[in-house]
Write a sequence for this structure.
């Protein structure tokens, strides 16, 4: 009989060992899947995990792209993690990301073609406010009417997607674009551009913002009363109430922060890597960030690493897809496996496996 | 200040990339990359692009190597995919969706020696050409069949997004249907999606339940055909691919995107060193738009449809020939006048007779 | 504009068809959540059911075999979720999302040779003269067997949760797993069973999409139905009867907005397409404002259980 026994404290060794074990297990299971598809498993795994980082042909370009891909994931996941720790479930970051991008782009395009230094900061502000306001809808409904925040935030994603589509063919459509959908290109308008800050690093303002967010979140969680309240509310809601934590304010704070960061991610993406509002501007960062938050164990530093790992599987997956002809679906399944294994081996951090008879408790 | 940093980084970035420009593929194979917006198994738009890729391989055999990437999101991801393809030694890259326009231009700047072909866009550069198909020619042929075949005089149209391509298709089929049957009426449902089978099925059912006995669609799934088959006495047309599994009825004909002749032509040009950036907008004549086999309609309808097809192909007939008015009654084209390409490319109005507003 | 072209009979009949996948998936998730487990992988289980059912129906020529296979496929993926969350104590929200991601990927892989194929038809049941009655003939007696099955299932789930001893045990597990454990109830076993049932129902819902409602196989064809099913469970404040109401309401709004468009009603179309979501939110707010809605949620929902606690 195999049994689990709770450790007195999380195992330090497994805290680091578990993710490595998970990656190793994924390579084995994924390799079997690639082999079943008739592809060379070793080449596939190497292309996904090694080539984006070290292949002489690609690495100089792909390595900085890790930051481009990880930036929005980390930014959004950091905000979400605060809420998840407090037991506040915002799974609508995708919508907050869209609305942030729409507000930011709208604020900038209203001033087009003026050239001024304040346009970009204004857009960033508008984007942050937009994301914040969109997140406030489920938060206020939760605190005022006790409406389930998981669902309202999720349903608002679909509403935001409809808004995006109608903005791309309507108000934000590029008047010089011959009637095609999509806004003007913001990364090509000097006043709104969010370019690579240091050549060859991939770092744009969104990556900087992500790093700042990680540091701030770390400080808030570990050195600040709000962080203490967040953790307390998540672990022991009753105790939190006795300690004077105001649950409504906590909900507003967690949603507000997450919405703000998601909105920022949206505006940095639309002014930088994406460049414009299009019908399908959003590519699922808001949902992937939820996974990143959990992979990082809801810890800001862990989220940073998890975001980079996720980005690696995306970029490596793309390489594997066109270099080796592996279907995108297999890459998706591979990412799913990686998550399954990471979640599965995490048990080793908090529990010890005992083989034999369990003691009577 | 901001501008200088921006330019500075761009130049530096270009310099950095110049270092990693790979030598062109050691062997003399021409490497061709394809960037798709959907999965190759979508049975419609991307499927046809991939079929053309396979024909390129078949045509050139050992002289060509093709790579592709499916389901590429528009925006930053597209630029990365194209850059990585160029780094891997691609000589020619086909970007097959409108949303890839700016990423294609950006990537092309970084790789002046790689040729790019962007579908349905309007931005070109020395090493970026554009190509598109005059689907509206095909829609005129289908519109004629639709007008002849309807008994309820109600034709349902499932539209995706209100963009010129879609509006052009509605107008072209309406004009043709109206010529064939002056009493015809179009009911248009905007699905606000390219691809959502369940929603397309529901839209088709709603149209059929309200009396439409012909369904035209500008979305990519066969769901409307299934709805038509279930209802009985309703016909539909294949979109993007032949949708032959619903032959001979309810699918009575189709518009097929046939990119193969163009792709083979362009690959050949790269091999010969004669490739130049240009703008191609081909229709039925050069074979980019094909009308799928016409089935289960009376012989005279079939003959008329084929005649329209052949006259369009020969350049004797233009689907937008005056007299034509805009929806508000103002004059658009005089007797005998044909529409110019600029107006067609930016079409944002209905022609006279269509009801309802274009969502905006 | 001519609203008379919209036939209420056909409208109701097609909203029933449009709602059935949602109803099936939501009923499964209801039982799962009643047992105290939050499985956000409904979308993934639905689409695995959609391809599993489609493939088997095409290979065997029997839609019934397809539906059975869909239930098995959904339950199999759900069991992965179950093992991770019940035995390995992984976080349910993250595992659920991973289930969806994996399901979408694996279904596309499995389905690569099945696009562009017509599945065998699932006909409407022929109930003789009953089908010829006005209105009720089409609305009540004019459907395929899955629609009736889903209605029957609604009743069965209601009966199970509220009237049976096993249902009482399941609810006890969902309300307070520690107390249930102390009473000698096998918490993990019951939850695993509920999770598998939820997966099977989601699989059936997916298969209804690919075999009846659309019917065809295409990658990503569920396009968000699983998430709506989750919303419906909360909307229903965890009651089987209201799940039925919620599913039909959502399906109804979707079908109605397309019908209004087809009838030429001058409404801003781009806002119409968001109406089902906005209306669902509005109803959620109304329900929760009138009575403390969240109080109806199982108390242990989403929490891991380990006997050492």
């Amino acid at each position: 009989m195999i049994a689990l026994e709770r450790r007195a404290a999380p195992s330090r060794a497994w805290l680091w060992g578990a993710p490595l074990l998970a990656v190793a297990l994924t390579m084995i299971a994924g390799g079997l899947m690639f082999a079943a598809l008739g592809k060379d498993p070793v080449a596939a795994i190497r292309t996904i995990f090694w080539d984006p980082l070290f292949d002489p042909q690609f690495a100089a370009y792909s390595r900085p792209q890790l930051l481009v891909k990880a930036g929005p994931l980390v930014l959004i996941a950091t905000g979400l993690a605060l809420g998840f720790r407090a037991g506040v479930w915002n799974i609508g970051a995708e919508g907050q990301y869209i609305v942030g991008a729409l507000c930011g782009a709208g604020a900038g395009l209203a001033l087009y073609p003026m050239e001024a230094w304040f346009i970009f900061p204004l857009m960033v502000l508008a984007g942050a406010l937009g994301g914040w306001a969109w997140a406030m809808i489920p938060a206020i409904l939760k605190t005022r009417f006790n409406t389930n925040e998981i669902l309202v935030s999720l349903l608002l994603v679909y509403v935001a997607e409809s808004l995006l589509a109608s903005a791309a063919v309507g108000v934000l459509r590029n008047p010089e674009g011959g009637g095609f959908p999509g806004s003007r290109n913001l990364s090509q308008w000097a006043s709104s551009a969010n370019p690579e800050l240091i050549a060859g690093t991939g770092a744009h303002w969104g990556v900087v913002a992500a790093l700042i967010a990680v540091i701030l979140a770390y400080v808030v969680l570990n050195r600040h009363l709000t962080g203490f309240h967040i953790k307390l509310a998540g672990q022991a809601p009753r105790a939190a109430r006795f300690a004077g934590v105001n649950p409504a304010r906590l909900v507003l704070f967690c949603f507000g922060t997450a919405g703000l960061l998601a909105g920022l991610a949206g505006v940095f993406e639309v002014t930088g890597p994406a460049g414009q509002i299009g019908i399908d501007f959003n590519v699922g960062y808001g949902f992937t960030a939820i996974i990143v938050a959990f992979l990082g164990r809801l810890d800001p530093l862990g989220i940073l690493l998890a975001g980079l790992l996720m980005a690696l599987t995306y970029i490596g997956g793309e390489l594997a897809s066109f270099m080796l002809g592996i279907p995108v679906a297999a890459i998706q399944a591979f990412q799913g496996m990686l998550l399954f294994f990471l979640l599965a081996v995490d048990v080793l951090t908090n529990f010890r496996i005992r083989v034999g008879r369990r003691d009577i408790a | 200040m901001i501008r200088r940093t921006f330019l500075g980084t761009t130049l530096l970035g270009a310099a950095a990339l110049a270092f990693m420009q790979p030598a062109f593929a050691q062997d003399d194979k021409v490497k061709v990359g394809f960037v798709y917006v959907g999965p190759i198994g979508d049975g419609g738009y991307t499927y046809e692009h991939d079929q053309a890729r396979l024909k390129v391989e078949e045509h050139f055999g050992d002289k060509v190597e093709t790579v592709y990437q499916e389901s590429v999101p528009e925006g930053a991801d597209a630029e990365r995919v194209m850059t990585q393809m160029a780094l891997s030694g691609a000589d020619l890259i086909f970007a097959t969706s409108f949303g890839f326009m700016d990423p294609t231009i950006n990537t092309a700047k970084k790789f002046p020696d790689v040729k790019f072909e962007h579908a349905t866009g309007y931005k070109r550069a020395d090493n970026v050409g554009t190509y598109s198909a005059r689907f509206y020619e095909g829609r005129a042929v289908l519109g004629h069949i639709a007008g002849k075949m309807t008994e309820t005089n109600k034709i349902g149209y499932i539209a995706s997004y209100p963009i010129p391509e879609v509006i052009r298709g509605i107008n072209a089929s309406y004009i043709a249907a109206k010529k064939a049957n002056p009493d015809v009426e179009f009911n248009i449902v905007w699905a606000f999606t390219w691809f959502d089978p369940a929603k397309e099925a529901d839209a088709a059912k709603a149209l059929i339940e309200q009396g439409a006995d012909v369904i035209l669609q500008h979305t990519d799934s066969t769901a409307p055909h299934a709805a038509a088959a279930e209802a009985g006495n309703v016909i539909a047309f294949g979109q993007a691919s032949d949708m032959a599994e619903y032959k001979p009825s309810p699918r009575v004909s189709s518009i097929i995107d046939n990119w193969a002749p163009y792709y083979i032509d362009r690959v050949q040009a790269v091999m010969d060193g004669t490739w130049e950036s240009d703008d191609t907008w081909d229709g039925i004549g050069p074979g980019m738009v094909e009308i799928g086999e016409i089935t289960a309609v009376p012989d005279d309808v079939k003959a008329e449809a084929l005649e329209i097809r052949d006259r369009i192909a020969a350049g004797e007939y233009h689907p937008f020939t005056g007299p034509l008015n805009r929806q508000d009654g103002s004059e658009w084209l005089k007797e005998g006048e044909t529409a110019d390409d600029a107006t067609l490319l930016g079409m944002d109005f209905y022609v006279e007779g269509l009801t309802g507003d274009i969502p905006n | 504009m001519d609203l008379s072209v919209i036939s209420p009979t056909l409208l109701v009949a097609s909203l029933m068809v449009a709602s059935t996948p949602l109803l099936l998936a939501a009923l499964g998730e209801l039982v799962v959540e009643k047992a105290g487990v939050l499985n956000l992988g409904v979308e993934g289980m639905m689409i695995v059911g959609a391809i599993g059912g489609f493939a088997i129906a095409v290979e065997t020529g029997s839609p019934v075999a397809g539906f059975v296979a869909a239930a098995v496929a959904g339950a199999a993926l759900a069991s992965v979720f179950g093992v991770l969350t019940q035995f390995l104590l992984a976080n349910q929200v993250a595992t659920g999302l991973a289930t969806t991601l994996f399901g979408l990927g694996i279904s596309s892989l499995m389905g690569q040779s099945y696009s562009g194929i017509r599945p065998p038809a699932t006909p409407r049941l022929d109930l003789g003269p009953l089908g010829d009655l006005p209105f009720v003939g089409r609305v009540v007696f004019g459907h395929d067997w899955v629609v009736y099955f889903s209605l029957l299932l609604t009743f069965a789930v209601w009966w199970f949760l509220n009237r049976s001893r096993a249902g009482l045990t399941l609810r006890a597990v969902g309300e307070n797993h520690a107390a249930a454990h102390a009473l000698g109830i096998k918490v993990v076993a019951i939850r695993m069973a509920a999770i598998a049932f939820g997966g099977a129902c989601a699989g059936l819902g997916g298969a209804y999409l690919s075999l009846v409602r659309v019917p065809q196989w295409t990658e990503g064809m569920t396009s968000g139905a699983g998430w709506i099913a989750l919303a419906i469970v909360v909307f229903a404040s965890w009651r089987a009867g209201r799940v039925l109401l919620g599913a039909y309401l959502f399906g109804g709004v979707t079908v109605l907005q397309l019908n209004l468009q087809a009838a030429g009603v001058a409404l801003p179309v781009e806002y119409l397409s968001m109406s089902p979501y906005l209306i669902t939110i509005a109803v959620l707010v109304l329900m929760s404002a009138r009575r403390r809605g969240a109080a109806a949620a199982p108390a242990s929902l989403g929490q891991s259980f380990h006997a050492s606690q």
